[in-house]
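Following up on my earlier thread - several people asked me to post the actual chain instead of describing it. Fair enough. Here it is, all 208 residues.
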Amino acid sequence: MFTGIIEEIGKITTITDKNIIIDASEVLQDAKIGDSIAVNGVCLTVTNIENQSFSADISPETQKVTTFCKLKSGDRVNLERALPANGRFGGHIVTGHIDSIGEIKSISNAGNFYNIVLKLDKDNSKYVVKKGSITINGVSLTVADESMDTITVAVIPHTFQNTTFKYLKNGDKVNIETDIISKYVEKFLSTRDNRTGIDMEFLIKNGF
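Reply from S.P.:
Thanks for posting it. Predicted structure:
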């Protein structure tokens, strides 16, 4: 599990459709093979550590549902180690499992913060609520506003300058993970996957 608090910006040295090698320093201080590191919000397993870089395998599913297919050598990526049992919970619950790819519509400097507007697909925009949490390229953010298929997030200068947000431009694609809690709530309340035995017939029979 992760929190969406980025520890450093890494640099891709090599990437194929099956493997990625990233230059890093902070996240490698206590890292070992088998550890989890979120790369632009994607949970990857460390397969090798050499000097100031680490390697990880990329699954076909990761290629399919994330922006990894668009990354290239030299690109910068957000990095975060998995949360230790005694770690401080600074962001929100982030699984590292990407739900969809969003598109940057605009980035504007509003003085003491930056407004970023993104377009989401309709299947995942239903999980987004105003003042709720969302993860964009691994960064835990609060939704400032939302409509049918777009959301606005307000990013403080520290976060903007210390993540890959400072490299983003209009039209760029980003990894989106919506709040896991909303998905559980949907499943519990779903009539399609209702295992409680409570249905319309039950409610009528009991006077509802």
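The radius of gyration is 19 Å. That should answer part of your original question.
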